[in-house]
Amino acid sequence: MSAVVYLGIDVGGTGIKAAIVDERGNILRHAETPTGASEGAARVLERIRRLGRGLIEQAGAQVVACGVGAPGRIDHRRGHVIFGSGNLPGWTGVDLRAELHRAFGLPVLVDNDANAAALGEAWVGAARGASDFLLVTLGTGVGGALTVNGRLWRGARYGAGEVGHMALYPGGEPCPCGGVGCAERYVSAKALTRRANEELGSGKPFRGIREVISAVEQASGPRRAAALRGVERWTADLALFLLNLQMAFDPQMIVVGGGIVNLGYWWDRMVQAASQACRARSTSIRLKRAQLGPDAGVVGAARLAMLYRPGYSPAAGGSARSTSPS
Ligand SMILES: [Zn+2]
């Protein structure tokens, strides 16, 4: 076992995950709890504290720092939430670093959840060796992170990579962010279930992406037809979305994450559709499935903690230079 380990925490709209991770990216211990987002930020924070404390007690090695990936626009230098995600009510303005530093007695580094996942994939996942790549995660929402010259590109207002709120359909469906027609409403994993249920009309609704995909692969009759149409519409929207990102950034690769990428047959079709659309514009696209699966967030958060540099003082607020992991 490593002499020193890191605590990585991934705060999602549905679940909070935490892990003790060693210096090579191995998860030594893992814990998870539902977010209970609708109960408000204070309750969510309490769950994060409890989960983290439990793992620190069981770590069996010195935990030297904690990294946190959380949704929304995050000031990674100060460790607080500038603008919360629509999936986590009351999250705006939460000083995550101060709250968790108090709870754990460790240096705490905070970043956007997709940024953390990108750090994980770049460290021990699909983007190993890539200096310029885009990570897109398809979950309850759609997250994105951009890495340029081997460093995260966070943008002038910490908003870079918020690709889920690019408009895909002008005048389209309203989004919790306040916009309309956001990509997230059409290409998230949640959107796939909604699409399939729209196609189904009446009958017992699909309860999640697993049910939709397995209906295409195993069901018959109207249920299968509805699931198939739902997947096709969703896949076409996703291909269009990825084409737009390719045209904007021309990265070495786009890594696509979220539990859905390992489910079923749609991936190859989507890659084909996106490749065709790119060829028509005289360019090409390289799409890769994320490799760390649901662990990308916690592993990347631990990486964020590992990149913490001596001289950083959580209490004093830290300086830009000492708290800017790449
Ligand atoms: Zn939006």
Overall description:
The protein is of the alpha/beta class and 326 residues long. 37% of the residues lie in helices and 21% in strands. The strands form 3 sheets. It has a 5-stranded mixed β-sheet. Strands 10-9-8-11-12 form a 5-stranded mixed β-sheet, sandwiched between helices. A hairpin with a 5-residue loop joins β2 and β3 (27-34). α6 (209-218) crosses α7. The two termini are 26 Å apart. The model is unreliable at 313-326 (pLDDT under 50). Bound molecules: zinc ion.
Order of helices and strands: EEEHEEEHEHEEEHHHHEHEH
Which ions and ligands are bound to the chains? zinc ion
Give helix % range.
25-40%
- The portion of residues forming beta strands comes to 15-25%
The N- and C-terminal alpha carbons lie at a distance of 26 Å
The helix count comes to 9
**Average residue-wise pLDDT:** 91
CATH homologous superfamily designation of the largest domain: ATPase, nucleotide binding domain
Cα Rg: 20 Å
CATH architecture of the largest domain: 2-Layer Sandwich
As for the CATH topology of the largest domain, it is: Nucleotidyltransferase, domain 5
